[in-house]
User: Fold RNA polymerase subunit sigma-70 from Rhodanobacter denitrificans.
Amino acid sequence: MRDETLASSATAAPPSRADFTRVAEAHRSALKLHCYRMLGSLHQAEDAVQETMLRAWRGFDDFEARASIKNWLYRIATNVALNMVASRSRRGRLMPDQLGSPSTERPRGRPDAEVLWVEPYPDAELENLPDPAAAPDARCELSESVRLAFIAAIQQLPPRQRAVLLLADVLGWSAIEVAAVFDASVASVNSALQRARSKLATLDHDARPVPMANEHQRNLLERYVRAWESADLERFVALLKEDAIYSMPPWREWYQGRRSITDFFGAVWPAYRGFRLVPVGANLQPAFALYSLGADGRWNAHSIQLLALDEAGIGTITMFMQPLAQKLFAAFRLPTILEA
Assistant:
């Protein structure tokens, strides 16, 4: 096959299922990322792309091959994701700082199992994916459109507006192409897109990566690891921006500002025997798998950390804690016990 279109003509033979399978599998990773953006969940995205492939296989005989198979697959995936959103009673996925004001006291009780939390996405799943900014009409670069802040923000859009925004501004589709996904008019698509852009602009998020010298970032992260592994609270806090935010889903509590974060970790760290940090890739941001030392001398999976930083320091620390972390360690292909 010369390209992805599987386009038919008066003289061309109809595409075979073997052709379809090869082309569909080539788009699996990109489709999963699209579903992740729609759903805010790594695990739901996997379910959605599996359902997409199943529906596409079953509907192959009705595929007329007059246009791009990629667009056909995205149309199926988008509608699968919309159905999944509708099935969860319109509840969107959230981050703790979207639920209320910052906390001033340590958490009490248990993690909130009722809230649907935004999940991180492994960088390993992003390898060799094309940057959507290469599309003429795309407004978002890959590094911006997978950042945790962007994913959390777009979950607050109505599902249909979210889908329109992703297809148009992230994938660079024309209004005509987007309209075909919903069997809608171009005018209605343009209206939904304008509303989505306006709503997104009002949300408090910082999705655009801040350019930073590699050496400075490397130095900052090395100091961060040393501060954790030595439980040096003073050095840890010195790396934070004055208005830094720390959150820890599935706990609802979150903390803002050096003093508040200092008080929290000053109370929590003494309960631990030690920490080890292992670099991982998530949402194209600096990230670590955190292990804590148990009484049996083993390093046990604790949490997945994502950082947002710039030249001034660390602005956001998001730690995905247990029990949410348990399935995230598996998804990131990380051991639950770290070998010494």
User: Anything to note?
Assistant: The two ends are 50 Å apart (CA to CA). The beta strands are 240-247, 254-256, 275-282, 285-293, 299-310, 313-320, 337-338.
